[in-house]
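Hi there,

I know you've been waiting on this one. I reran it after we fixed the sequence typo, so this is the corrected version. Both the input and the resulting structure follow.
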Amino acid sequence: MITLKQNDDLFNLKRCCAKYLALAPIFECLNVNNIPYANIKGETLSLYAFDQYGQRSYGDIDILVSRKNLHVLEAVLAQNGYISPSVTREEKVMMISASHQTAAWYKITNQKFKSVIDVNFDIFWGEHMGRHIDIDQFLSDTIEMKIYGVKVRVLSPLKAMIQLILHHYKEMNSIYHIAEHDCIKESMFRDVYYLWKNNSDAISLEKLYELSLEYEIIPYVFYILYFTNKIFDDQKLSRYVEAFHTQDGFDLLDYYGLAVRERKLWKVDFQTRLKTNKMYDLIKADLTEDDLIKLERNRKIFG
C-alpha cells in the first residue's frame, strides 16, 4: 500500500521531471551555442546533496548567466514561447542595477502547467557594496550533468556551495524575503549541510577557504556555517566554523538587513526565527518609512 508520503514524493518527482523536460529546448540551445550558464539550486542541488532526484521543494528553475549574456538568454526564452511580465523602463533599470535577477519568465506548457524560469546574473544581492564576482569567470569550469535525461551545465560542488551560501545569506537578511516568504527554514541549512557532507573532498576546508578569501566573502561563509552547525552540531563542521570566524562575521549573527544603513538587531533568538511562520510580525515594528517603500517596490516587481 502506498503511503501518503510516498504519494507526495511521487507527485513531486513527476512535477520536477516535467519542469526539466519543458526546458530541454532552452538548455539544448545554450549548449549548442556554447553560451556560458549554469542551472543552480533545483535538482542540481538535490543530486549533489542527497544523490537523489526530488529531495528539495522548489518552484522555479534558476539559470545563472553573466550580464553580457543576459540578452542572449532572454532571446532564447522568447523564441521558445516564454514571456516576462511587462515592467516599466524604470523598473527594468532597477532590476539590473539593484538586484541579482530579472523578473521571472514563464510559459504554459502542453501539459497545462506553468514553467517558470528565474534569470540570475549575479550571485550577490543588489545592495552589496564590496567586490563583485566575475560571473563569466565563475562559470568557466561548469560541469555537464544529465537531469531527467536533459543535458544541463552546472556549477562544481565547490562553487555550488559558494552560490548557495550567498543565496541563503541574502534570503536570511533581505527585508523583502523575511517579510514576504518566511524564508528562514531548517531546509535551507539541510541543503548546506548535506552538500558539504556528501562532497567533503571537493569542499575541503582548504579549498573553501581559499576561494572564499579570493571572493572576499569570509564573513558570509562564517554566518551560514555557524547557523548550519547550530542545527547539526557536527564536530568536523565545527572546524570550518572556527576557521572562518572573524569579528566582522560574528557581528552579523544578531542582525538582519542587506545594506548597512538598513541593518537592524533581531529582537528574537535564532530558534524563534527558525520556527515561526509569521516572520513579518517579528520585524514590522522596526521598519522605517524607507524600508516600507523598498518593500512595496519589490512586491510590485518580484511578486
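Quick highlight: The chain has 16 helices and eight strands.

Best,
R. S.
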